[in-house]
Each structure stands twice: as structure tokens, then as C-alpha cells.
Amino acid sequence: MATLADIGLAAAINILSALIFLLLFAILRIQPFNDRVYFPKWYLKGVRSSPLNSGAFASKIVNFDFRAYIRFLNWMPAALKMPEPELIDHAGLDSAVYLRIYLIGLKIFVPIALLSWAVLVPVNWTSDGLQLAKLRNVTSSNIDKLSISNVERGSDRFWAHLVMAYAFTFWTCYVLIREYEKIAAMRLSFLQSEKRRADQFTVLVRNVPPESDETISENVQHFFLVNHPDHYLTHQVVYNANELAKLVADRQKMENWFDYYHLKYTRNKEQRPRVKLGFLGLWGKKVDAMDHYTAEIEKLNEQIMEERVRVKKDDKNVMPAAFVSFKTRWGAAVCAQTQQTKNPTEWLTEWAPEAREVFWPNLAMPYVSLTIRRFLTHVSFFFLTFFFIIPIAFVQSLASIEGIQKKASFLNPIIEKKFMKSLIQGFLPGIVLKLFLIFLPAILMIMSKFEGFVSISSLERRAAFRYYIFNLVNVFLGSIITGSAFEQLDSFLKQSANDIPRTVGVAIPIKATFFITYIMVDGWAGVAGEILRLKPLVIFHLKNFFLVKTEKDREEAMDPGQIDFYATEPRIQLYFLLGLVYAPVTPVLLPFIIFFFGFAYLIFRHQIINVYNQEYESAAAFWPDVHGRIISALIISQILLLGLMSTKGKVQSTPFLLVLAILTFVFHRFCKGRYESAFVINPLQEAMIKDTLERAREPNMNLKGFLQNAYIHPVFKDEEFEDDQFDEGLTEDSDDEDCVVVPTKRHRPRRKTVASSNVSGGLSQSLPYNRFDTDKGKPV
């Protein structure tokens, strides 16, 4: 168990690591040859020019301006200088709201820390509970004297913790409701002022029922001409182009290798480069590299053309889904937010994701298979979470010197040294847990892709939800349970069954020392490592040396990255959980969490301004998830405090804590009913206002031309294919607003749509549908 000296050593190591990362960043960022690594966002916006284009050769590599080294910390005030409205224009609402999560952490925990240190720390410090616990062989450290563990069983001092729990809850709820209201208003304002985008007019339709007499495209067109006659504009059916996408990706790889060897040849024309055809180029026949990759590219071009023809001609490649676009945002809102038929399993509509965030491979999944896929994913996640208890138990064994000595007695001469003992208990457990979790976000994202979500934002939100559950079960509860089981095993075996809950109640706050070490490793040194961008730095210079020939190539070599919401937001939520759980139990943990929120806010604000380039914009659609997880952390803290107080002989506090948990849940339901609709539903009033303003400003706008190619699969977006797509029927639209008959190939009676303009030519009326005689081709 970590002592105060162990925590001090861990803090020194992590602070030193963070300072080294920051110093390296401050030096590397001002070197001209790293400019595209640390300021890629400004290059993408076209407002920053490369310093390599001017000056002497040496000055292009190293910055000889010594004044820049004196001002090496000026990035900190610069990161805080940009006001929030300008930040939203610069980086988007998603990025601005993401930063507000860190600000909420500061708003919640700074007052809580001041109050808990002013009230609870003196109450805990002046008690003698741990002196009595030592008589029962329960281990503890000097840090635990600041926690609730030091309060004697049955003491009236526990009422102070109960009152503080109410104060912490009310303050947290106050901050949350103010932020929910603010962010909901920011979202509506952002959507209202946002430029015209295709997803504002488009709906994704899935589970289109088959018709024997019509293709999917004809069926979609017919359905929406009949049921949305005044607003339907055009549609784009969804193709299973996954095989074609693989061929295009393979061709891109071959082109990259060709560019590499061609650049190598231009640097040394005396000898043409050669390559081995065996595994990974390690053995096999040697051939001319450029001729080989030229032949491979030509072969892939032929396969791509054949696959394109097959995709267009074979109806089996047309999925029962389509992107349907409307003439107005109001029409799209009505379609996306209503049930289309009496059969709730057919013609399922939802808002189309932004075109750049569509995850095209999953659109090719049959809708009926999604239920099976989600069931298999749930089962896989359960077993992943369950079996990860094993490495968690291993990490907790490292946190105990006694456990290491029992398991590996040959290490006694090393670990008995004071420095090594402090290093093992104060630093090693946190870094090992961090290493165990390093690949987890990528695994959870793969599971979300298998589950079948069709947008990057939905993939990230589902992966973030699972990561949060994983952190809750394994990192938090698993660390407490396994830690208690390992450290208190001797006490469990020697005492009566009635005393075991009391020992567990004491052991829970004792695990605060482990979480302190983890916060320093992950939240201090880990966040500082984010700003250094070591991996993008190395990859950029490798590409720049081996592949880059032109400025365009150099721009493509940049990797600005983005906020990985599915990896970073659950980590933030773990800190909310730890802070809220330990605020009334072990307040000594709060300063470490406050430092994380402040430091991370500074780092990520700098990255958002200068580095990250988001792939999509969801207008803060993730905020209800963030709010809900903070509320769940608040309720979990109240339940755990209830259990802890009961083991401390204060059973009479149970009704008060139950009422507090119920009040918190009622507050959550109120916020959900009051504000969540702004994040999932587009109000018809707002849509109509934006449509009206746009018609007044651009009365002659060609909306069909803007929408008809917006949702074509990226592998189809080249000139040769787009020239003949309409001949092949890839895109269908309705040009004639006053069409009298809805055409159909079906051999059973079908209704038609009649539209007549009023005298002023303004509005159209939909007259009653009549039967249509398909054999005679005229209305009956």
C-alpha cells in the first residue's frame, strides 16, 4: 500500500516526465522543419505558409532566433486567448463543447475541494479509527488518516460526511443544469447559423420492402412521390461496394509504392530500383520495381472497371436502403421524425449523417442481421470485461509490497530498498494499468463497427459508452474489489463473517492511494505526452524523406488527427467518478483531479486551435451522454457512501442517502425531458425559419444540383463514373413539381398523385389519390 513518501516519489516522476514533454514540445514546435506537425490546422485553412520556402538552408532546419527560445512558453497564453465564439467558428461546436467538459470538472471540483478540505479533513484527521483497526490487522497508511477510514465506528462525526454529500450533490446538479441549458442553446444557435449542408435536407431510409415489379430505386421514388409529393426531391440508393472499395485501397497502396521507387530513381538515375516478389519483399525473384508496380496498377484498374460494371448491373448489389433528399429542411424533418407506414419494421427513417462521416462498409449490411450482430457484440463485450479482471488483479498485487514478497521472494533484496519500494508502490501499478488499457479503445471501436452503425459519430458514441462501462466495472470496482481481497485476505480468514463487511468498508477508501498514482500517470504525464505528438512527428518526417515530391504530397503527409471522443471522453468520466466517490471519503484525492482538469483543458485547447481537424460535426450531439454519465457517477457515489456508512455503524443514515439518490435520479429525468430533445430532434419551427430565410436570400438556388451527388459512395466519385451515372439510374429525382401521374411498373392497381397550382402560383394542393391503370397508361 502506497504511503505518503511513495505518492511523493510518483508525483516527482510524473511531474518531471510532464515537464520534459513540455520542454521538448516548446523546442520542437519552433523549428521550421516541424511547422506542419505542430500547426497543421492552419495549413489546412490556407492561412499559414511554410517557413521552408524562404531563407538560407540552415534556417530552414533550425530556428536561430534566440528570442523564440526565451518566449518558448508563449503557447500557453495563446491557447487561452481565443474567445469561445471564435473557437466555434474556427474548430466547430463539437470541439468547443468537448473543452467545456474540462471546465465543468473545474467548476464542480474546485468548490467541492475547498469545502471538503475545510470541513471533512479536520473531522477525519482528529479521529482515531485506524488505531483501533490496526488491532484487527487491517493495513493502512498515513494518508488514510485524512480519509473517512480514520473515523471511529458509530461516531456522530459521520453526519458531517452526510451533510457534505448533500452539499456536493446539490452543487453538482446546479452546475450540470446550467451547462445543459447553455449547451442546448449553443446547439440550436449553431444549427440555425450553420451553412447549408446536404444532411439538413436528407434522410436515410432503411429496410425498404422488395417489389417484384420494381427495382429498389424505382420503389423508393414511387413511395416518396406518393407519400411526400410536395417535398420529395431526389434520392440515391445504397450499393454494396465493399469489394470495389478494397480494390481502390489496394490500388492506392500500389501507387504509393510506385511513387516511392520513382522518387528513389529520380535521386539516383544510374540504377533502377529493384524489388523481391516474395513475402514482404524479403525473398523471391528480383524485378524492376517501377515496372512491377505499373503492371500491378494497370491490373487493378481493369479489376476496378469490371467491379464497377458488376455493381451497377447486378441488382443484388443494391441494398434495401437509400438517401432521400427533400426540397426543404421542414420536409426532411417531418420524414425523419415520423413513422412512414403502419408496419413499423419497414421504411425506417432517420436523419442522414453528414456525408463525410458516413461509414460506408456498414451500409452494405442487411438490416435483419443487425440484431444478431448486436447480440454477439454484447456477449463479446461481457466476456472481455469479465476476463480483464485477471490483469486488474495482477496490477493490484503490484500495489502491495507484501504480496510481491510472498509471490516472488527472490526479489526481496531489491524491493526492500526504500527507493525501489516507493517506486513499485507509487508508480508501477499506475503505469502497468495504463499499458493494459492502451489497446482497449481500438478493440471497442472494432466491436462497434461489427455492430453495424452507419456513422462515425454513432460508432464513437457506442465505443465510448462501452469504454465507460469497462472503466466502471474493471478499473474502478475491479481495483477496489481485487485490492480488498488481496490486502485483507489474512483478516478475512481470521475474523468472523459478521466483521468482513466492516473490513471491506475500511478498505474501499484505502484504495484512494492507487487511484492517485493512476491519475498522475494517465492524467499528468499522459496528457503532456499528447501535446508532444511523437508518433505523428516521426511518421511525417519518414514520409517527407521517402515519399514527398511536391507541396501537395507534403500536405497529404500531415496527420492533424482529431479528438478521439471514444477514447478521451470515458477517461474524463473516470475522473468525474473518482472525484465524486472520494470527495466525501478521501478528499486528499481531489487536488490531483483538479490539476488534471486544468492541465488537460490547456493542452487540448491548444491542440484544437492549432492541430486537430475534425472529420465531422455533430453539433454537440454527444452531450446527453456526457450529462448522463456524470449523473450516474453521482448516484454511484451516493450508493457506495451508503454502503460504507452502514459498515461504519451509521445505519440510520441509509434513508437520507436513499432519498438523495432518488432526488438525483428525478433531477436527471427532469433534465432529460427538458433539454434532451434539442439534441435528438430538429424542431419544425427552426427548420421552417431557416427554409424561409434561405428562400428569401437565394430564390433561384439550384438545390437539386447541390444534393444529387452528395451521398454517392466515394469509390464512385470520379469523372468517368459520374458522367454516365444518370444513364445507369444511380440517381433518381423528381423534376416536375406538377406531375399528374406517379409512374409505376407494378401490375396491380396503384394510386396516383395530382398537384394543381393556385392562382398566384405559390402553393400546391394534393388532391385525392385515384386508381392508376398500368395497362392503358392513363388514370381511370
TrEMBL record:
It is a multi-pass membrane protein. The keyword Iron does not apply. Residues 754-768 have a biased composition (Polar residues). Residues 373-645 form the CSC1/OSCA1-like 7TM region domain. Residues 200-362 form the CSC1/OSCA1-like cytosolic domain. The chain crosses the membrane at residues 6-28, 101-120, 158-177, 375-394, 427-446, 467-486, 506-527, 574-604, 651-670. InterPro entries: Csc1-like (IPR045122), CSC1/OSCA1-like_7TM (IPR003864), CSC1/OSCA1-like_cyt (IPR027815), CSC1/OSCA1-like_N (IPR032880). The keyword Transferase does not apply. Residues 728-780 are annotated as: Disordered. It is found in: Membrane. Residues 744-753 have a biased composition (Basic residues). Residues 728-739 have a biased composition (Acidic residues). Keywords: Calcium, Coiled coil, Ion channel, Ion transport, Membrane, Transmembrane, Transmembrane helix, Transport. Residues 290-317 form a coiled coil. Its main location: membrane. Belongs to the CSC1 (TC 1.A.17) family. This is CSC1-like protein At1g62320. It comes from Camelina sativa. The lineage of its organism: Eukaryota, Viridiplantae, Streptophyta, Embryophyta, Tracheophyta.
